[in-house]
Amino acid sequence: MSSKMTRLIDVAKLAKVSTATVSRVINNNGYVSARVKERVLKAIEELGYQPARAARFLAKSRQNFEVNILADDWVLKSITTVLDEFYSIVHKGIIDFSKNHRMNVHLRSVNSWDKNADGFLLIGGGITKELVKEVKATKKPVVLVDQYLPGLKVDYVVSDGYDGAVFAVDRLISKGLKRIVHIHGPLSHFGFRDRYDGYIATMERHGFMPKSYEFDEVSDNMGVIIDMMLRSYGKPEAIFGSNDTAAIRAMEELKLREFKIPDDVSIVGFDDIMSASLVSPKLTTLKIFKYDLGSIAARRLFNLLMGEEKHPVKISLFTQYIERESTI
Q: Rounded to a whole number, what is the largest CA-CA distance in the chain?
């Protein structure tokens, strides 16, 4: 028996696994659980088993990775100034995972990032195809968070807005509501487009006419939207907002016009930010598991940095309907 095989057997015995498992770990080929992989790595270190391939893998498995989180100015502001809303919670999920997995994370603008970083997390609807192509050109691992751009074949972690919209609109219709208006953000954002598509499909499936308006969260045109809707469409029976901010602003404008929520108009949001449970009436919404969105994206990037499961995937998290006081 060769000395190499003898040492491989020694590693396997110490780690209490088969030689095939040791080989899979060293060659990074095939599934091995994180706990078993750690036992094998410790055995390799303890026995000083250092053929070239094992040495390279062991070094990689122990290094700290430099990671850039790239976001546009709006998302950066949300992360750095707001502690209880959407992207700040996504960011916390990334940070908490990274602390335990040797990832040094740096928050960067889409206009100023480090091409020498080991990997990249690109967050939010402001991420463009041009930016993704530029980052991909570095040949480093890339994961998009809360944004999906068809045709690029990179990794994505998103929430399932389509499924959430279908559930919400079906729920409103089951209560006898037919005139359901959708107020959405820019449809260039995958999340808003996904929810819009789910709303349209569900209304048409039931034989009802869909009606939608685009809300600009930056300039806040909700007052204009509500006046336009009441003038041209009339009073809706329900409003489905593509995020909680749109739903809450619609509620505020309707209340200013002396409509009662939910007696006159039922309102449903999307995201379940903290504000949703603080407004009056409390907002019915679809909960996105924002912390998980961040931690799963960070985990996916870590796997890519370790050379594992390299084929790009799209991970979609289902939402949860949270019924509160803003719907009948």
A: 87
Q: What CA–CA distances, in Å, run from 295 to 24, 101, 266?
A: 26, 11, 34
* Token couple for 93: 């999920």
Give the whole-angstrom CA distance, residue 204 versus residue 85. 33
Q: Cα separations (Å) of 103 from 17, 65, 80, 117, 297?
A: 28, 5, 20, 11, 13
pLDDT of residue 4: 46
Residue 103 tokens read as 């990832």
Angle at 322 between CA 199 and CA 257, to 5 degrees: 70
How far is Cα 248 from Cα 227, in angstroms, rounded to an integer? 16
**Angle formed by the axes of helices 19-27 and 3-15, nearest 10°:** 100
Write down the pTM of the prediction: 0.78
What type of residue sits at position 178? Answer: K
Q: Is the pLDDT of residue 69 over 90?
A: yes
